Amino acid sequence: MSKVLYIGSGNSAKLVDTIDTSCYYVVCANNAWKLFKNSKFDVWIHSGDFPYENRPKKDDINYKLEVSHKEYSLSAENICKKLQISTKSPCHILGYTIFFLGLYWILDNHPNSDIYLLGFDHDYNSKKIQKWNSNNRPNPQNKYLKPKNQSIAEWSDQFFSGMQQDSFYGHGTPDPIRLGITHLKQKMQNAITNANKLGVQVVNLSPVESEFNQIIPRK
Fold first, then answer.
1. Alpha-carbon span 29 to 8, nearest angstrom
2. Phi/psi at 203 (nearest 5 deg)?
3. Fold of 2-122+177-204
4. Which residues contact 176 (CB under 8 A, 6 or more apart)?
5. What are the extents of the domains in the chain?
6. Rounded to an integer, what is the distance from CA 214 to the centroid of its chain?
7. Structure confidence by residue, pLDDT tens digits, 106-156
């Protein structure tokens, strides 16, 4: 059985430098492409509203395949058929964040591969969550409720000033919990169960423990 290394944006993603990535098929989600500026990887998958200022420029493209919203939506449909899940909204029933959509794309397109996670820490700072909730949840959909002339990096540094960063590149928003902590936990548990039903092992290589991520870190 082959191995897929699926990388997110949490601080533990920096541990990729300690891993021999040649042993894996490497899939990067959203900002994780930035970890490979001096090397290549296999797949870049990102949300449809992923900010253009955070996307790789033409000279920075260092991956073989870019997975579109259309492609991972089709994978969500395929997975629901395989698991006999009856739904009109496959993406939402599986979990509508790039972590879940990318995970199910891997399960659909690389069915004979175990999946190793890195950088999907989901270790959101409670103070950041409180501030984010009390300020109408700024995110890509509402353009972070920021002035047009301000970059996302500038906005996030200002908005989360004095708080510990939770992404390897700086500050991120706790957008995956927009539907609630219980919802996120349930989708995470469903993902583990669904992967097991499909005969795939999901291993968390991150040493970070979080109440949101139900996939126990490898010791």
1. 5
2. -115, 130
3. Rossmann fold (3.40.50)
4. 97, 99, 122, 184, 212
5. 2-122+177-204, 126-165
6. 14
7. 999 999 999 999 999 888 888 899 999 999 999 988 999 999 999 999 999
